[in-house]
Fold these 2 entries.
Entry 1:
Amino acid sequence: MNAPFHPRGTAAREPFAAFVCDEATAEALRPIASEMGWQPEKVTRGGLRNAVQTLAVSASPSILFVDMSESGDPLNDINALAEVCEPGTIVIAAGQVNDVRLYRDLVSSGIQDYLLKPFNADQVREAIAHAQLTLAGPRVGVEVPSERAHAMIAVIGVRGGVGCSTIASSLGWLLGEAEGRSTALLDLDVHFGSAALAFDVEPGRGLTDAIDNPGRIDGLFIERAMVKATPKLSLLSAEAPLNHPLVTDGSAFFQLQEELRGAFEMTVLDLPRHMLIQHPHLLHDAQAVVLVVEMTLAGARDTIRMLSWFKANVPGVAVLLLANRVAGSAAEISRKEFEESIERKIDLCMPYDPKLVAQAAKLGKPVAEVGKAGKTTSPLIDLARRCTVIADGAGGASKEKASAKSLIDLFGELRSKLPARKPKPKAK
Ligand SMILES: Nc1ncnc2c1ncn2[C@@H]1O[C@H](COP(=O)(O)OP(=O)(O)O)[C@@H](O)[C@H]1O
Ligand SMILES: [Mg+2]
């Protein structure tokens, strides 16, 4: 059941079987089975346990529906099912637990879809249509996945306005053009995203539709929703109306990441920092995080806090520290002071270059394209190279140990090194 792209021997199989836990679910499924031309008797009771027992001694159907409501340990039971289920079977599960982590784990275990009970007939029809699409064979039109493992690079700004989106769009462009990887740029600033603007394209409705209807996200959806910026780079971004709040449990983002993984070699995630708090699981599958920092007091404080968050939540991820808008002696704090306070080195420094940035904005092209191999873009070229090396599993980003000192200690040390603020002259 883990190999939906290469279904084998489906011709000799029953098209469908369902193992449900209660009569209401059976009654919901039987008319749909009839509609599809399948035998309604294939809907039987006994749930996941019966599915495992039955499939251990008989051939697996093409589409298998399992009700997990009576399962005490859904993941374990799904793994038991995987052992008896033949490759190529598409599994649709249903249950009463509404938890995105369970959903994630189930999808990783090879199930295609999870329907929350009670579900309606349209949800079942949609899940079946999706399963049939997968059975119909490899997806067309989207880049053919290569032998290389997919890698996801998240770009996060330590504070708003540090240039996170500028760097994410240039990184996406370079991974495509300079590194030759088919790349997706996913801009998760749903209301104010600027990825489409950076490439002078219309963002379309794809991302907002995905968030509103995570069940619709599949290979075809991705193919239609992604906007091509260059032959090697596709975007998914939005300009959601400002009266349209972002309401999601995060399953849409997980599903999007899953589909992008199948269709591209690299995904660059432009991740507004507040999303990290709401949806920490967004980084679980990332190989690298590019943390864009500014050399200010507030920047140092938040860098310390975010490095410690990465260490606690995604300990395996490689963190590349990129200081942007570096303006030499005009900096609020020096590079040395900044590095001492965060207790690690900055990996890359990009200068403050308003002229180039303005030129790129006017042309509707990413900074990396307009700046060619100049001094502002060379750190970006270096960044793309390092990300490719990490993607290929050769490591290369520093995973320097965070200090045992508390954040308050670190930050306090920095403050004490700075010249005291001059008292304001008293009014006479
Ligand atoms: N190296 C740089 N030099 C000058 N301006 C920059 C530089 N990098 C980014 N900017 C500008 O800073 C502003 C904020 O950048 P943006 O990428 O939108 O930040 P974020 O996504 O972190 O909020 C933009 O106007 C951008 O053009
Ligand atoms: Mg941004």
Entry 2:
Amino acid sequence: MKAKTLAVAALIAATATTWAAGETATTTAETEAPSVSVADGLEAWSRIYEVASHPRCSNCHVGESGIPMWSGPSYGKTRPHGMNIAAGESRIGAEFVTCATCHTRSTQGNTVAHAAPRVDMDWQLAPAQADWFGRTSQEICSQLRDPERNGGRTAQDIAEHLDHDLILHWAWDPGGGREPAPYSLQEHIADVMAWGMAGMPCPNG
Ligand code: HEC
Ligand code: HEC
């Protein structure tokens, strides 16, 4: 795990210099040539979309409903989380039963089939604005590049956030017979960086 984190840190450091030059391309795409072509950026985006729309990610990235989903190969039929779970505006279930009641905090994952997944941070839904479940590639792309709706992040901030977030590490190693998110965390981070350097292109422009 340590080696993995270091490799990712090295990747970010290696791309940071290029990034500094490429950063303005996201805002002044017409005047500055992006350091990654738009075509390559769109290819990176299509892989990012495969990840974002995968159940290991989108089951938590639901909108205003605040209801996590159970879906994907190991879940049979797609359906709302059992036991009438709702996250409420708090997104952690504070108004009802908190997610942490079952998704306890631990450095040891819970790999028993059908047991509640756990990581060493508070389990909770993503912000309602990061509403990805059942959304199209264009919809998710527009949200992720919009600082008004993505927590004010640049693509580099997103890439760094991905490395820090233990829930994301879980999504690639979910245990309990669940299908992991596609590609790997490192590949996903590299794709987010490349997409950013291409000016965050979306399929419909
Ligand atoms: C257990 C629920 C959960 C799962 C599963 C999950 N996320 Fe999230 N996600 C969150 C929470 C909570 C936040 C808000 C964290 C923050 O802003 O610090 C978040 C925020 C994000 C953000 C910040 C962007 C934004 O618009 O706010 C990105 C990018 C992201 N997640 C990607 C992913 C990816 C990729 C996966 C799958 C590999 C994934 N998430 C799986 C809960 C989840
Ligand atoms: C009463 C216990 C309980 C509570 C409370 C609870 N969960 Fe769960 N959750 C479970 C169990 C058990 C599973 C595993 C189901 C399975 O694998 O068949 C699960 C699975 C999930 C999954 C599916 C993970 C995947 O594989 O994609 C998500 C997402 C999730 N919960 C989110 C939440 C959120 C968000 C909250 C709080 C709003 C919450 N849960 C509250 C018991 C609970």
